[in-house]
Amino acid sequence: NAIKFTERGGVAVQIDSADRRVIRFQVADTGPGIPPEQLESVFGAFNRINRPGKLVEGTGLGLNIAKKLAHQMGGDILLTSTLGEGATFTLELPFQYPEQQAVTAFQTNEKPAIDTSKAGRLLVVEDNLMNQIVLRKTLQGAWPNLEVTIATTGKEAIECLHSTAYDLVFMDIQLPDMDGFAITRYLRTQRSASRANIPVLAMTAQTQVTEDERFQEVDMTDYILKPFNRDQLFEKMSAFL
């Protein structure tokens, strides 16, 4: 966007991680700037900057998707602008440095065997459309014998769990009508013994999810961090299917 809108001057990119907890990416341009009344709306879906006499191409989804991804990682995208002088977008992402013990645990060349020929039924409880598409395409491209069902709300998830015996469940923690803990509690307490013990993997951007008392109370099996790492995702699937 900065390059597209900057006809004179330049675009500067700066990366800062001085406090070792937040990585900050800043993109500043010398373009036309953004009117004050449009500063918030530019992050909305299908919204584009209107420039008199200029044809603006694009869907108006780029900033919307980028901001959602930042939020899923626990960060944010901030915008400052002076009309006629340019705009500055700042992406801030928090990171947590692992303890030394955790680092040494991964200093090995040995990796668990991944068997993508395994068959099974997978229920994905996820309300974000983009996450649904990425996850489904990733799985379909690698696991030919996997039957994937997607539930976008807690109500849909409970209906699926009531009607079908799944082999593995990916559970988003935050849903529009109820949280993933409540759905998992329903599974563990209201279903028959054969279905109540289905492995449930929490899908979350919170690295400390296992320290949440609810994670233990509802007996969640494991977790996958968003945005997911393909190899780690497949390793856990291969282990639990």
Task: Explain how this protein is built.
This protein has 9 helices and 9 strands. The longest helix has 14 residues, at 129-142. The protein has helices at residues 2-5, 62-72, 100-105, 129-142, 154-163, 180-190, 193-196, 213-217, 230-240; strands at 11-16, 22-29, 76-82, 86-94, 120-125, 146-151, 168-172, 200-204, 222-225. α5 packs parallel to α6 (180-190). β5 (120-125), α4 and β6 form a beta-alpha-beta unit.
Structure summary:
With 241 residues, this protein is of the alpha/beta class. It has 9 helices and 9 strands. The strands form 2 sheets. It has a 5-stranded parallel β-sheet with strand order 6-5-7-8-9, with helices on both faces. It has a 4-stranded antiparallel β-sheet with strand order 1-2-4-3.
The counted number of beta strands is 9
- Topology as H/E string? HEEHEEHEHEHEHHEHEH
- The radius of gyration computed from the alpha-carbon positions, rounded to a whole number of angstroms, is 22 Å
Structural class: alpha/beta
Helix content: 25-40%
Contiguous helical run count? 9
End-to-end distance: 43 Å
Mean pLDDT: 84
Major sheet summary line: 5 strands, parallel
Please indicate the percent range of residues in DSSP E strands (runs of 2 or more): 15-25%
| Sheet with most strands: strand arrangement | 6-5-7-8-9
| Overall geometric form | elongated
Query: Please, what is the oligomeric state?
Result: single chain
As residue ranges, the low-confidence spans are 100-108
